[in-house]
Design goal:
This protein is of the alpha+beta class and about 55 residues long. It has 1 helix and 2 strands; from the N terminus they run ββα.
Length: about 55
């Protein structure tokens, strides 16, 4: 999963990785059970707020 404005996000959870990219940051999940649902919800809410600016 990637966030187009990931570089602007707080990343308090430490989940987002830029991997050398200047704008996009993302998270890789290999198993459904590995998804931290509450943290992911927070990231999505923050991404929505950034998009509304």
């Amino acid at each position: 999963m990637c966030f187009l404005k990931g570089y602007q996000m707080s990343n308090e959870q430490g989940l987002l990785l830029a991997k050398g990219r200047k704008q996009i940051a993302g998270i890789t999940f290999f198993e459904v059970n590995d998804i931290p649902v509450s943290s992911l919800k927070e990231l999505i809410q923050e991404a929505i707020l950034l998009e509304e600016l």
